[in-house]
């Protein structure tokens, strides 16, 4: 069936990215959205948009009938699922076909087969594709996994048979940890994918995660488009991806590419797919899984091949040949992509939510930024915390790396906590710069102390104080009548000075701004003083000279007395508590356990009157598709349990109250 209209059954950056290509090819595009996404960029970009329900994914994006009804109501002829949500749901692909819609993706039987890690692995073993030793049996009893683990040997990886993205996955180092890991992985898998089926695999320590992009048309022509190295991960979720792999050789690429093509041809694959492998230091590689959809990291392949993968998907879905042979595929230069997550790195990468006070992406040679956010919108707790992808292409790896770093430095993203500063640091690490990063990179490179929130430097405090002072003075001058500009910064007793008191981790940082000549100020602090000169200024960017060194500061002023700012590799939010006294309640103490974010309480493990020790599990909260264990921070006795399984709780809601033992070092 030929088609000229496409409903994009997704949200965020991937919906925007698919629409961009579809519109450029002349297709009419239709968006779907939840009540939480009514003002989202993908909604505004579409030719038509349909609300499909409330914010929770099960009531909107993951409801096949609502998506199909939206297609019928708008006259859509094809559906592009993006990634995540229904993209690897074979029943949805079948339902599209039954409704007379073209599913822009593989055949349902291929989705079924490769979407189940256990069955996929069995098929790959039969096709002589190298696989990691493990257990993918139909017996899902805990005893079966425990018995299999003894044959496999520890460490092992417990994995959800359906889905991916690190959800339903646990690394287990010894037998005592296995039953709890199985329970948690199964629960997380059921909530994320609707299936609690698990597999076990031998944990390959410190491998590279290398994947091959494959493409096949309806006639069976199958090629690969080279590889991507996706080794830099945290909690089994990718953070940095690049193409080509830094240690790839032509001979190894040929062998891995041939294995990936064989995997696709074995199941009569159609469209875009990715075959993922673990690559050992000895050059041995093992099949991990096949993703039957477009990958998050597909742009790095586009940047090194010059191909538009969404355009190829649409072409194949129209029944056309690829029009490419393996000899036509050439890799030029190097590309690196980083995933910009809304997360608090200092809190073990805990997802973050909230109002986006500023989204101001950078531009530059070779730079591409894919995003689905905008200033003024909310990062909600209902969806994945990835909010944008920053990538760059260059003639070689180091140029691409430096371009991504500069793009991150010049991108303004304020409101929720993000991993911007962490990404800049990771890209700058010697091991990454040398192309040596494996899946162990983050764990080997960073300790908890390394990831802890750092106090702002005197230069950053000085810049914040001057920018606040200047903006407040500018606003007051505009509102005043008949005040000569030459009188600014002057009082009857001489040059004016203004005290700012910033609070950082319960420590006050005093900064006194002493006015100079109208474009230069001295900022006095306990740690020393700095001289700040204003070179230029606009809404969100200022060029400052601090003690003679010139720098560009990206900033936002979301409310009186508060400033977000980024200077080179560091970001901070500082609030002048002298201007906001009485505006906020005191933070809770260690005995008051608050929800770290909006989410669903899945389990409560304590009751009133129970004694607990620091580190004991109090509850399990699900947010942003992940399960988070709420742990006691002190020894004591539970005096109140303010939540129950099934409760939706907002951020900072009281969950549990603990009377702290007097001898506890809280």
Automatic annotation (TrEMBL):
Domain Lipoyl-binding residues, every copy: 578-659
All residue ranges annotated as the ATP-grasp domain in the record: 121-318
SMART domains xref list: Biotin_carb_C (SM00878)
Keyword vocabulary terms for this entry: ATP-binding, Biotin, Ligase, Nucleotide-binding, Transit peptide
EC number(s) recorded for this UniProt protein: 6.4.1.4
This protein's record includes keyword Nucleotide-binding: yes
Biotin carboxylation domain residues: 2-447
The protein's enzyme class: ligase
Required cofactor names: biotin
An example molecular function term from Gene Ontology annotations: ATP binding
UniProt xrefs under Pfam families: Biotin_carb_C, Biotin_carb_N, Biotin_lipoyl, CPSase_L_D2
Xref: CDD domains: biotinyl_domain
Top-rank taxon: Bacteria
InterPro entries, A to Z: ATP-grasp (IPR011761), BC-like_N (IPR005481), Biotin_BS (IPR001882), Biotin_carboxylase_complex (IPR050856), Biotin_carboxylation_dom (IPR011764), Biotin_COase_C (IPR005482), Biotin_lipoyl (IPR000089), CPAse_ATP-bd (IPR005479)
Record's protein name: Methylcrotonyl-CoA carboxylase biotin-containing subunit
UniProt source species: Candidatus Phaeomarinibacter ectocarpi
């Amino acid at each position: 069936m030929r088609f000229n209209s496409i409903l994009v059954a997704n949200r965020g950056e991937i919906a925007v990215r698919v629409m961009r290509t579809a519109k450029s090819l002349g297709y009419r595009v239709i968006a779907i959205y939840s009540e939480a996404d009514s003002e989202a960029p993908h909604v505004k970009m579409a030719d038509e948009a349909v609300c499909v329900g409330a914010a929770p994914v099960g009531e909107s994006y993951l409801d096949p009938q609502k998506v199909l009804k939206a297609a019928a109501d708008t006259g859509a002829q094809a559906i592009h699922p993006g990634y995540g949500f229904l993209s690897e749901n074979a029943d949805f692909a079948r339902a599209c076909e039954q409704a007379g819609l073209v599913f822009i993706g593989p055949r349902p039987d291929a989705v079924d087969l490769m979407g189940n890690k256990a069955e996929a692995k069995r098929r790959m073993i039969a096709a002589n594709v190298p696989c990691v030793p493990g257990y993918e049996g139909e017996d899902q009893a805990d005893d079966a996994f425990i018995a299999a683990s003894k044959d496999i040997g520890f460490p092992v990886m417990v994995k959800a048979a359906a889905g991916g993205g690190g959800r339903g996955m646990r690394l287990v180092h010894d037998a005592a940890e296995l039953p709890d890991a199985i329970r948690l992985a199964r629960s997380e898998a059921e909530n994320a994918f609707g299936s609690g089926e698990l597999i076990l695999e031998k944990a390959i320590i410190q491998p590279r995660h290398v994947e091959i992009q494959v493409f096949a048309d309806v006639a069976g022509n199958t090629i690969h488009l080279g590889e991507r190295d996706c080794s830099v991960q945290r909690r089994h979720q990718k953070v940095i991806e690049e193409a080509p792999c830094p240690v790839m050789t032509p001979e190894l690429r040929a062998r891995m590419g041939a294995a990936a093509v064989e995997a696709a041809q074995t199941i009569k694959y159609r469209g875009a797919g990715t075959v993922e492998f673990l690559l050992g230091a000895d050059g041995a590689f093992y099949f991990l899984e096949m993703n039957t959809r477009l990958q998050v990291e597909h742009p790095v392949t586009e940047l090194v091949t010059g191909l538009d993968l969404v355009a190829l998907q649409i072409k194949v879905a129209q029944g056309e040949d690829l029009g490419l042979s393996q000899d036509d595929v050439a890799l030029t230069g190097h590309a690196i992509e980083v995933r910009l997550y809304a997360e608090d790195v200092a809190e073990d990468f805990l997802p973050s939510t909230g109002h986006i006070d500023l989204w101001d992406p950078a531009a530059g040679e070779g730079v591409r930024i894919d995003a689905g956010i905008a200033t003024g919108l909310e990062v909600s707790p209902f969806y994945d915390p990835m909010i944008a992808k920053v990538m760059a292409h260059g003639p070689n790896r180091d140029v691409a790396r430096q371009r991504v770093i500069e793009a991150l430095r010049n991108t303004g993203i304020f409101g929720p906590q993000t991993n911007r500063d962490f990404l800049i640091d990771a890209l700058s690490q010697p091991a990454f710069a040398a192309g040596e990063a494996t899946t162990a990179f983050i764990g080997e490179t960073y300790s908890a102390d390394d990831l802890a929130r750092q106090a702002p430097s005197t230069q950053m405090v000085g810049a914040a104080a001057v920018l606040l002072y200047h903006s407040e003075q500018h606003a007051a001058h505009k509102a005043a009548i008949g005040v000569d500009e030459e009188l600014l910064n002057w009082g009857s007793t001489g040059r004016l000075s203004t005290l700012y008191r910033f609070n950082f981790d319960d420590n006050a940082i005093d900064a006194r701004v002493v006015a100079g000549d109208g474009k230069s100020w001295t900022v006095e602090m306990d740690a020393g003083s700095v001289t700040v000169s204003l070179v230029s200024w606009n809404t969100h960017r200022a060029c400052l000279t601090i003690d003679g060194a010139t720098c560009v500061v990206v900033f936002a002023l979301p409310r009186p007395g508060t400033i977000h700012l980024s200077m080179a590799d560091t970001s901070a939010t500082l609030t002048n508590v002298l201007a906001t006294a009485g505006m906020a309640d005191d933070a809770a103490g260690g005995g008051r356990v608050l929800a770290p974010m909006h989410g669903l309480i899945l389990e409560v493990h304590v009751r009133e009157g129970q004694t607990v020790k620091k580190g004991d599990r109090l509850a399990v909260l699900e947010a942003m598709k992940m399960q988070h264990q709420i742990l006691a921070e002190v020894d004591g006795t539970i005096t109140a349990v303010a939540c129950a399984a099934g409760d939706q709780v907002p951020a900072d809601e009281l969950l549990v109250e603990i009377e702290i033992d007097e001898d506890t070092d809280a």
